[in-house]
From TrEMBL:
It holds the Pfam family EF-hand_7. PROSITE patterns: EF_HAND_1, EF_HAND_2. The keyword Metal-binding applies. One of its GO terms (cellular component) is protein phosphatase type 2A complex. This is Serine/threonine-protein phosphatase 2A regulatory subunit B'' subunit beta isoform X1. It comes from Acinonyx jubatus.
Length: 579
């Protein structure tokens, strides 16, 4: 035996020996005879009834009538003296003597047991468990696909040559049972962008396949917008859908003549969609994420609500107006990219330098500009501004947690908290305000958050805390920290626990800033950057919704599909010359 090899018992041989011993017991023989008698095929003659030399005549006679997978290998017992109490199996068995131990060969008795174990049992228990995972929606028996297709064909019959243009797709969407503003995805999914129209045959084939594979609105919407071979949506997939909203929604009619802002509005809405819906931060919206969100409900409301500003969660033009104006104030060279010095001027240098460095470290940004040139795009700024002004939402808590988690271990240590609080203390000292020692501040924050584990604060702890905004502002926003200090904690809790359809912090901020911007424009205040206001050919009665940037030369209009580079923008010097 090779050195180091451990001897192990041959368990199979011992099991074979014990099985043969059990099989030789008289009680076992009697039981098997009873079983074979019950399952024996009626009318089959018994064989070997008068053979007294065989200990189990009934066993041998009934063996051919048994199930082939269970007892075929048993056969007739071999002739043996009366003193032999251990039958050795069928005559074809390789064993030639009464010895039990020997080479590990398969005995007849072993084949019976192993064959019985391998025989598949009827899945009686599994059949009672209904299917519970439906990645493309739960199938519904009530959907009559042929009736839906017939209705679509009758709709196409009303169009010239049974072909529908983009203007006709609203009626087609209704025939499909979809909200009005699904017309764009329906048109493009059927290949309408290539020829400018869709034939009835091609559209019916596309929609029939969609109904057969997708069983709820989320799965259908993803199927219509996604690229072939994907089961998710990326940011570029939303551009044709949103371009159609810009072109046809009555609340955005004033933007038709200000086409240079189509791509900016579309970029803002796309970032807000991913900010709210894409909870995994993957950059890919799945059917499951879409089902858990309110996006499709807001898409349906586009048809009912003529005032786009009432849809504050995604589509509000006023919110876009505020975000874009704030970005334009910081983007001094107007290349649609801002660096750390530009961002530091936000809200009169309220953010700490260390936090700005973390934002530009790539912890919460996408794209290559941050790593290569130390700049963030307008798309990144949308995430920043919403997170900065409303630190109570799940995404904003994740945003700032990522920034404060320096080592990326999923928890905020006392060292990381002290790292950010040191700059707050220096800034308070420069303002002649006595700063609270870190130990005392730490006790307050731990009482505020109540972490589950001692010595660290996790993301779950902050999401469970109703005053996460106070926690974050304490460590990197000096202005809001002082505002919180002037309020008692009881009043902060009362504000956070107020019932009813209370406006979010972001909605309050956007409404206040929009009123200020409109008032400044109405008063005719000059631009700080020296540009003069040059009225665009937008309808005068909608001037309160007109962006200040529409009053000067800007970028070229996008294509018919609103082609947008969501991360990298480029503009020539000629595009931003003063008027």
């Amino acid at each position: 035996m090779p050195p180091g090899k451990v001897l192990q018992p041959v368990l199979k041989m011992k099991v074979d020996e014990l099985f043969l011993c059990w099989l030789s017991e008289s009680s076992t023989q009697t039981m098997l005879q009873d079983c074979l008698q019950r399952i024996k095929t009626p009318g089959r003659t018994e064989m070997g009834a008068g053979d007294a030399g065989q200990p189990g005549p009934l066993l041998a006679a009934a063996a051919p009538a048994c199930k082939p997978g269970v007892f075929d290998s048993l056969g007739a017992p071999s002739p043996a003296p009366a003193s032999a109490a251990l039958p050795l199996g069928a005559a074809t068995s390789p064993r030639s003597g009464p010895h039990v131990r020997g080479p590990p060969r398969r005995s007849a008795g072993t084949r019976v047991v192993q064959t019985k174990k391998e025989e598949p049992l009827p899945p009686a228990s599994s059949e009672s468990i209904p299917a519970f995972y439906f990645p493309r929606g739960r199938p519904r028996d009530t959907v009559n696909v042929d009736a839906v297709i017939a209705k679509i064909e009758r709709t196409f019959a009303q169009f010239p040559h049974e072909r529908a243009t983009m203007e006709d797709m609203g009626r087609v969407a209704k025939a499909c049972g979809c909200p009005l503003y699904w017309k764009g995805p329906l048109f493009y999914s059927a290949g309408g962008e290539r020829t400018g129209s869709v034939s009835a045959h091609k559209f019916v084939a596309m929609w029939r396949k969609t109904l057969q594979n997708c069983h709820d609105d989320a799965a259908k919407f993803v199927h219509l917008l996604m690229n072939p071979g994907c089961n998710y949506l990326v940011q570029e997939d939303f551009v044709p859908f949103l371009q159609d909203v810009v072109n046809t929604h009555p609340g955005l009619a004033f933007l038709k003549e200000a086409s240079e802002f189509h791509s900016r509005y579309i970029t803002t809405v796309i970032q807000r969609i991913f900010y709210t819906v894409n909870r995994s931060w993957s950059g890919r919206i799945t059917c499951a994420e879409l089902r858990r969100s309110t996006f499709l409900q807001n898409v349906a409301l586009l048809e009912e609500e003529a005032d786009i500003n009432q849809l504050t969660e995604y589509f509000s033009y006023e919110h876009f107006y505020v975000i874009y104006c704030k970005f334009w104030e910081l983007d001094t060279d107007h290349d649609l990219l801002i660096d750390s010095q530009d961002l530091a001027r936000h809200n009169d240098h309220a953010l700490s330098t260390k936090m700005i460095e973390r934002i530009f470290s790539g912890a919460v940004t996408r794209g290559r500009k941050v790593q290569k040139e130390g700049k963030i795009s307008y798309a990144d700024f949308v995430w920043f501004l919403i997170s900065e002004e409303d630190k109570k939402t799940p995404t904003s808590i994740e945003y700032w947690f990522r920034c404060m988690d320096l080592d990326g271990d999923g928890a905020l240590s006392m060292f990381e908290l002290e790292y950010f609080y040191e700059e707050q203390c220096r800034r308070l000292d420069s303002m002649a305000i006595e700063a609270l020692p870190f130990e005392d501040c730490l006790c307050q924050m731990l009482d505020l958050v109540k972490p589950q584990s001692e010595g660290k604060i996790t993301l779950h702890d902050l999401k469970s805390c109703k005053l996460a905004n106070v926690f974050f502002d304490t460590f990197f926003n000096i202005e809001k920290y002082l505002d919180h200090e002037q309020k008692e904690q009881v009043s902060l809790l009362r504000e956070s626990e107020s019932e009813g359809p209370e406006l979010s912090d972001w909605e309050k901020y956007a409404a206040e800033e929009y009123d200020i911007l409109v008032a400044e424009e109405a008063a005719g205040e000059p631009w700080e950057d020296g540009y003069e206001a040059e009225l665009s050919p937008v309808d005068q009665k909608l001037s309160v919704l007109r962006s200040p940037l529409a009053q000067r030369p800007f970028f070229e209009a996008p294509s018919a599909l609103g082609t947008v580079d969501l991360y990298e923008y480029a503009c020539d010097d000629a595009d931003v010359q003063p008027s």
